[in-house]
Amino acid sequence: MKKNIFYLSIGISVIFISYEVIGLEFLWLFFTLISLLFLFPVWIISKFRKLSKRYFSIPIIIIAVCIFGLLSALLRPYDTAILDSGSTSERLQYAYETDQNDRRQLKSYIPYLSKLKERDDLRLNQAKRIDEGTEDLKPIDQFYAAFIFHHSDNSNDYETASKLASEAANARHLQDHYLVQWLNKAAYDRWMVSMGKAEKYNTQNKFSIEID
User: Fold this and answer.
1) How far apart are alpha carbons 182 and 174 in whole angstroms?
2) What one-character DSSP code corresponds to residue 70?
């Protein structure tokens, strides 16, 4: 009885944490795969010699707990993609944050569950309206907008992303901001590659470490 209550409390905790913490589902997926990889040789060995039930029960329990976590995360609804009110800075920062949070969710990479494309379109359209209607964006707002533009799918938007990122990177107080400086290079390379030209900073190479 106590053991069942213990397992139930773990399951509920995993479900709650997975629902609240974005990106944790990748950890559950990792543990699930590791457990499955462990079970396979154990199953093979069990064909030739008797093994303790613990070799099977422990990884199976881990897999069950992880599946609960995965399902909880997949059922988590997306946050609203954009804000329709607030200052320019607030709207761009919020769009940037949802852009990043969407890419930290497993369901964004599952075709039947993902709404990433339509949400990217909402963010991009808002960023375009702001960019066209605002003459003097703050450097950090230029960075937020550039990140959204560089998740587009056409060369013109990549060009805009590169220009905005360059202006943000030149701001004195953002000289040591890693992401700002990285985006300045990545947006330029993505623009070049989209036109069939060679990249300059090697940020689009499939073997390089890239932050989306």
Assistant:
1) 11
2) H
